Amino acid sequence: MNDIKIGLFGFGTVGQGIYKVIGRSLNAHAEIRRICVRDVNKPREVEIPSALLTDDMTRIFSDPEINMIVEVVDDAGASCRIVTEALRRGLPVVSGNKAMIARHLPGLIDLQRRYGGALLYDASSCGSIPVIRNLEEYYDNDLLLEVKGILNGSSNYILSRVFDHHEEYADALRRAQQLGFAESDPSFDIEGFDSLFKLIIITMHALGVYVRPEDVFTYGISTIHDSDIRYAREKGVKIKLVAQVLKVADDKFTMFVMPEFVPPSRYIYSVDDEYNGVVIRGECYDRQFMFGKGAGSLPTASSILSDIMAHRHNYRYEYKKMGYINRPEYTTDVVLKIYVRYVETPAAELIPFIDIQEQYTSRTDSYVIGTVLLSDLIAIRPSLSAPDLFLVSFPTFFADLDD
Amino acid sequence: MNDIKIGLFGFGTVGQGIYKVIGRSLNAHAEIRRICVRDVNKPREVEIPSALLTDDMTRIFSDPEINMIVEVVDDAGASCRIVTEALRRGLPVVSGNKAMIARHLPGLIDLQRRYGGALLYDASSCGSIPVIRNLEEYYDNDLLLEVKGILNGSSNYILSRVFDHHEEYADALRRAQQLGFAESDPSFDIEGFDSLFKLIIITMHALGVYVRPEDVFTYGISTIHDSDIRYAREKGVKIKLVAQVLKVADDKFTMFVMPEFVPPSRYIYSVDDEYNGVVIRGECYDRQFMFGKGAGSLPTASSILSDIMAHRHNYRYEYKKMGYINRPEYTTDVVLKIYVRYVETPAAELIPFIDIQEQYTSRTDSYVIGTVLLSDLIAIRPSLSAPDLFLVSFPTFFADLDD
């Protein structure tokens, strides 16, 4: 096993965390040989020799000593160019950019197979929780039924502040940004896209199927109101932003990201603040629950370190499940039970409910509870972005699939 | 990748579970070719072709088609003979026998290196929770500080019944045995040995150091009384049987198994009934918590299936941390804060307390709370087995190591 000489792209919160973590980790036998940043003169918290920095990516790719690329740049376009270039050169790459990976996964798998390089990205999904590798290696059999979790620390932090600390939504969002949990574009977190990208990656390693982000129903928490919180409190449940992929038949699965009413009996009920929690359910082992810090400089950096060390031992994702017999197919032809709160928008007219079970109207906030086809929600997704609407799903709808 | 043809030893609860699970798992490409049992005529719940059964182990080892051994026999001596024979033949083996593995680990590692076979035993520790493989592969760096958990489902089930359901200890034990959670020798569970064996295996994969079971302080729950439960309830904590290994300095670690007062703020507080829960703490990622079913036929069988499939992809434990720079040393020179309840035995005279903080005496039950050296507890371990004594540790003693 050779020593690892890293070319690092990006030196923000996570990049600086990696620098610290590698310094503490003697047995990694890894060192950062050069760091490519946009602006070498920008003042930074971590002091490093200025010779390490460059703004010219060719200085990394032309250095024959560098035998691994780690990229933690914020920009998905730049991330894609870096990872593609590295894979074309057959170099191993560690990436934390879930948006880029979720969008380009089939192409990235192809590049790995064609040029023999390896792309590792456990750090991209749930920070320090080893979800991807466990789905790929440990739950690599036909028994897997469902992966469901709170995958975004920032939105979960906001919901916790609002729920447990009775804070205003805007204050909670601001605080999450100050603490560095939130992505630079907050809509990533609060509109559910960050969770969606992680779910796309998880689904590939859980079931061996790639689903394009644009084909998945995604609904965030930005329009949550006091009345929704009051409703949930009265029912003794919390509202959590949940991402899930689950088999609905032997040969079909569905997936979506949306707020859910979570009762105290569920594992994810107690996942608060910036934490992430994932439930893996299988036919014989019931439910496994993994819980940990999903975001932040050092947790993400230590997860990147795990990927670096995995490469040291020649580990690579083999995407085994892509070759499985009877891979299930993605379907949106499933019935969900949802709560829709509205003010002006007439929810019962807008949404093609199959059946309405409850209806409450008042001058300020009204709601409808009913069942609807997921495919119908996808069809009318743009109009669901009205600022006076808020949707929450009920977990109990799949009666035999409770967690 | 070839198809896997298994020679199975043992066809009790777990063995029958394996038979069922493999039948359901198309993509395992595995089949059970022969099953070696003590008594071929014993009536069994699962119906199998009688030609599959044999009581002659040579019929398995002489079958050239069999390319993997799975052994789930109850007897540690027989388990050792089977695994040794398989490894000598360079065959891959999956074993669930933690007592055997914990006692013979150095020899088993040696046999694997000498003959090239691989021994996998994730199923041996915490059933369906992938602790071993995650410690070996994902937390394979210098950042790991502590692994602590509830590793025995049966004693945890008993404590849950006693605590949450106000049952009598003896009734709870009987019920655990009826439900099949308990090992055939109940002292394994309730005296902490099952937890100890798992902790020995975990320590090897967490820190790369083998500690002999007889060198570790182990104390179970068999002498718990109503007064202990009352005490814990009054303080708002639960008593859990906890196994832990933790770094106490950069170059030292300690480990022990004993009941602990667990406050509601800890992850393991909510691990009830037959569940297992493990907290992995690291320097940068804070705490990871894994939770799941630790015992039972199908959860253990699905874990064995994970080991079988891991072999299919040529996975083996590499015991990497044994070769690490600055491996920490085992020490028992650490101070614990403990509660000792007694009736007749004069606890304050028996135990060489460094400092006594509280003392309560009554005609029926008295207790002392004080600090003591772990090495001193080990020295007087035999006399601590008096039936009127019960020891519980306080987790908060390591002030900076709280979980």
Keywords:
homodimer, 403 residues, alpha/beta, 7-stranded mixed sheet, 6-stranded parallel sheet, 17 strands, 25% strand, globular, disordered C terminus
Question: What can you see in these coordinates?
Answer:
- Two copies of one chain form a homodimer.
- Chain A has 403 residues and is of the alpha/beta class.
- Helix content of chain A is 33%, strand content 25%.
- The first copy, chain A, is built from 13 helices and 17 strands.
- In chain A, strands 7, 8, 9, 10, 11, 12 and 13 form a seven-stranded mixed beta sheet that branches.
- In chain A, strand 9 (238-249) and strand 10 (252-262) form a beta hairpin.
- The longest helix of chain A has 18 residues, at 98-115.
- At the A-B interface, helix 1, helix 5, strand 12 and helix 11 of A face helix 1, helix 5, strand 12 and helix 11 of B.
- Strand 12 of chain A pairs antiparallel with strand 12 of chain B, so a sheet runs across the interface.
Alpha carbon gap, first and last residue of chain A: 43 Å
Question: What profile does the largest beta sheet of chain A have?
Answer: 7 strands, mixed
In DSSP terms, counting alpha (H) and pi (I) runs of 4 or more, how many helices of chain A? 13
Helix amount of chain A: 25-40%
Output the structural class of chain A.
alpha/beta
Q: Greatest contact pair?
A: A-B, 53 and 53 residues
> In what range is the share of β-strand residues of chain A?
15-25%
Would you kindly provide a brief summary of this structure?
Chain A is an alpha/beta fold and 403 residues long.
